[in-house]
Specification:
- With 686 residues, this protein is α+β, with helices and mostly antiparallel strands.
- The chain is built from 16 helices and 37 strands.
- Strand 21 and strand 22 form a beta hairpin.
- This is N-methylhydantoinase A.
């Protein structure tokens, strides 16, 4: 079996090919080509040639991308028209009472993806029990469809009142639209997020419509480009929750792709946790544009069913991956008060850092690392790209050092220090502020830049140690090959737990299980590879926030034990919020089903197979460690020359084609099983 994965980042696209027959894995990094699949095609052709196979020999292709993320963040998505129940035209404008600055009277809010001028009211209404108070007539559906089409939408979102209880009116309006415009993408809230609370449901549906055309266009380009090079393997797309979906499922609900990009690294992090017996991990994925973090506790990644992103509530089942603008391409500057800033602007892959020599003139973290000696100008990407130290120094000098009357080295070190402070705060928010002790956690560093900055972070946060996988630069792409097909279904089910009748509960479960069966059948998942898991969203009566708890299943039915479930909820509430009150009754709000379709994983034995030929380089190099320590001599090593049990005291630099690893003074690296590096503090000097 030959498996291929590709993870598109802001600067680089990582491609991994795993050949189970030979037990070898090959990896490559190519510069990202925004909005096109050119980088993926280039990577596939390069890796296929290196592995001695043809693209037609590839059996499965798993892909993670940021198309949906970029369209949403940059507000470059589709022109969306929203259909709502009469009287609810302002649902997106009103939103919620959450404010980033709660005491400011002048703050502005993000403009809705479907502004008020593109909201069409429909004369219909369901009540809170799913009964039609104002039935939707065929004439009204036709009128509303004409009004929607008159606004020239590129996609339509339908979110009618209480449609999660009865989707008949949404279905009827969608059918009227399809009669007039068969190719127009239409997204219904009863499919995207069948759940109570009007604003989150509507906003999530509008988001699906907003990013849907961009996702569809990208998939169409991919479907054209891959056959052109002779590749006809099934394509699976990474979802925000760590599973993968078929192309059909991704088109049906493109909102599941919104945070596809960083999910692969978390999946691979869970595998590292299991294989190496490291229960508590903070993953740290630093690429060219951003730094992503996640928390793995007792071997399990933290997920969320609702996210607040840029002030907007999105109802998406996602891995909990906070992101900040701190990547190798993050630009350094001096603000009006004379303070150095890093990010949020990024040089990306075009024009890239100044040291790339591609036209960039602004100083980035990559330029700073090169000036400090942490990167080797001749060893970047295994020697395929030579960096220009003079351009890096000039960029930092003109933009920062001269303005502050400091040396170029001190300016570069200040940029690294500030970026580390920003990333350390993100880690504290994810862990310490949620009751976790960072001294019990390892820092799993990957991405093109993670292994360079991790030693500074771990030292500042007093973490247990640093874990660096065999191929940190393409770790997220490797994680894509470890994912299974995943479906999520949910239905509203509001009742206090002591009043729930098991028959009604099982009827609801049967309905979700039938939806899962249809999805499994559609995507060709074999019966032996199917699994289902049940969950319940629960809260104390009177609360507005829920916790999701697993419901044990027994031969396809939910096992319902009121006392046990109440105790589990109290324990979960205690962990999440620091208190629990068993005297308050609790209730179920939603039932969920997660369907898992097992995907065959590649079997590879040689974890240290070379990604590409890299010239041997063993020696020493001066690195600048700040005004206090000045220049220190660091030993330089090649990663593929290290063997299990080898120990390297810092400062040390380890080169490999997909990244550079730095070991700080006062730390020591040891090579473990399958080439995994563990870096620990060995003295108080840093």
């Amino acid at each position: 079996m030959i498996s291929l994965s590709a993870d598109v980042g802001g600067t680089f696209t990582d491609v991994v090919l795993a050949d189970s027959a030979s037990g070898r894995t090959y990896a490559d990094k190519v510069l990202t080509t925004p909005g096109t699949s050119d980088a993926i095609v280039s990577g596939i052709l390069r890796l296929s040639a290196r592995a001695g196979v043809k693209p037609s020999d590839i059996d499965i292709f798993v892909h993670g991308f940021t198309i949906a993320t970029n369209a949403w963040l940059t507000r470059s998505g589709a022109r969306v028209v929203l259909a709502v129940t009469r009287g609810f035209r302002d649902v997106l404008e009103i939103a919620t009472q959450r404010r980033s600055l709660p005491y400011s009277l002048t703050q502005t809010r993000t403009t809705p993806l479907a502004p008020r001028s593109r909201v069409v009211e429909v004369d219909e209404r369901m009540d809170a029990f799913g009964a039609a108070v104002v039935p939707l007539s065929e004439q009204e559906a036709a009128r509303a469809a004409d009004a929607i089409l008159a606004l020239k939408p590129e996609a339509v979102a339908i979110s009618l009142l209480f449609s999660h209880l009865d989707p008949a009116h949404e279905d009827m309006l969608a059918e009227a639209l399809h009669k007039c415009a068969p190719d127009l993408p239409v997204y219904r809230s009863s499919v995207i997020n069948p759940q109570i609370e009007e604003y989150p449901r509507t906003n999530t549906t509008v988001t699906a419509a907003y990013v849907g055309p961009a996702v569809d266009e990208y998939i169409r380009k991919l479907e054209t480009a891959l056959p052109a090079i002779g590749m006809d393997a099934p394509v699976l797309l990474m979802r925000s929750d760590g599973g993968v979906s078929t192309i059909k499922a991704a088109r049906d609900n493109p909102a599941t792709m919104l945070l596809s990009g960083p999910a692969g690294g978390v999946v691979a992090g869970c595998a590292i946790s299991r294989e190496h017996g490291i229960p508590n991990i903070i993953t740290f994925d630093m690429g060219g544009t951003s730094a992503d973090f996640s928390l793995i506790a007792d071997g399990a990644a933290v997920t969320a069913n609702e996210r607040l992103i840029n002030g907007e509530v999105l109802r998406l089942t996602t891995l909990d991956i906070p992101t900040i603008s701190a990547g190798g391409g993050s630009i350094g500057s001096v603000d009006l008060g004379g303070a150095i800033r890093v990010g949020p602007a990024s040089a990306g892959s075009v024009p890239g850092p100044a040291c790339y020599g591609r036209g960039g003139t602004l100083p980035t973290l990559t330029d700073a690392a090169l000036v400090l000696g942490l990167l080797d100008a001749d060893e970047y990407l295994g020697g395929e790209m030579r960096l220009d130290p003079d351009k890096a120094r000039e960029a930092i000098r003109s933009a920062i050092a001269d303005r502050l009357s400091i040396t170029v080295e001190d300016a570069a070190y200040a940029m690294v220090t500030i970026a580390n402070a920003q990333m350390a705060q993100a880690i504290r928010s994810l862990s310490v502020e949620r009751g976790h002790d960072l001294r019990e956690f390892s820092l799993l560093a990957f991405g093109g830049a993670g292994s360079v900055f991790a030693p500074f972070l771990a030292a500042d946060l007093e973490m247990r140690d640093i874990v660096i996988p065999a191929r940190p630069g393409v770790f997220s792409a490797s994680g894509l090959l470890l994912s299974d097909i995943r479906y999520t279904f949910q239905i509203p089910f509001l009742a206090q737990i002591d009043t729930v009748e098991e028959r009604g509960l099982n009827d609801a479960a049967d309905g979700m299980r039938e939806l899962a069966r249809q999805a499994f059948d559609r995507d060709g998942v074999a019966l032996k590879d199917r699994q289902v898991r049940y969950y319940a969203d629960m809260r104390y009566v009177g609360q507005v926030h829920e916790l999701t708890l697993p419901l044990e299943d027994d031969d396809g039915t939910i096992r319902w034990n009121v006392e046990q479930l109440a105790a589990q909820f109290s324990q979960a509430h205690e962990r999440a919020y620091g208190f629990a009150d068993v005297s308050i009754p609790c209730e179920v709000v939603n039932l969920r089903l997660e369907g898992i379709g097992k995907v065959q994983k590649p079997k590879t034995e040689n974890a240290l197979a070379e990604a590409s030929a890299a010239p041997a380089q063993n020696g020493k190099r001066s690195v600048y460690l700040g005004p206090k320590l000045g220049y220190r001599e660091a030993t330089v090593h090649r990663r593929d020359s290290l063997r299990e049990g080898t120990r390297l005291p810092g400062p040390a630099i380890i080169n490999q084609p997909d990244t550079t690893i730095f070991v700080l003074l006062g730390q020591e690296a040891e090579v473990g099983l399958n080439g995994v590096l563990r870096i620990k503090a060995v003295s108080g000097e840093n």
